[in-house]
Here is the input.
Amino acid sequence: QVQLVETGGGSVQTGDSLKLSCEASGRTDDFYNVAWFRQPPGEGRKFVAAVTMRGTTYYTDAVKGRFTLSRDVSKNTVYLQMDSLIPGDTAVYSCALGSSNGRYDVWGQGTQVTVSS
Here is the structure.
């Protein structure tokens, strides 16, 4: 069974950078994409970015130009480079494996990102 582990969260100040990692253990070939979601305090979970198994990337408008996805296939890991962080980026960030039908059935435990002004 595939499992996901996120690392790299922390507390930073406005304008700083963080790089999150999402490492998968197990076979991921049957999945369509790897996505990052975030849940700000008191709010629901929101889509942040995704990369398909073919390498196509998608970003929500709020992070375009600031966040960058990359992946290391040999390590079965997807990275989310977050630059120019703002307090609005404060959230628990989770990665998930998505199927071609749009469902996300495998989730990591999440990592906290806190950005102070």
The mean pLDDT is 96. The chain is about 0% helix and 55% strand. Residues 93 and 111 are 5 Å apart (CA to CA).
